[in-house]
């Protein structure tokens, strides 16, 4: 009789485990499907409201350079000219590209290149967040 009871408990226990696993799998599948749903156009655009603007002052070959970083954008003021750049892929540090302008930052060092001609090295002076 002990063998029959053990067999019955084992079979019932196996059925409960199977049912629990099946229920967990179906629930997980349902949650995963819901998480990928598009809820509207507001998801299509990154929110700039949550981004903070940081202002950095650099000294480049004795001349002041001001950069305003906001999200993936950088706005540069250099020698009475303004440049708008967008963050690009970089192996190290941060790299920004604009029309005939590039700017890179790594630690307290930076570099500005304009029209592939003017290349200046910069040193960070201060950052305002």
UniProtKB/TrEMBL annotation:
Keyword annotations from UniProtKB, A to Z: Lipoprotein, Membrane, Palmitate, Signal
Ranges of residues in domain C-type lysozyme inhibitor: 58-115
Entry-linked Pfam families: MliC
Protein name as catalogued: Membrane-bound inhibitor of C-type lysozyme
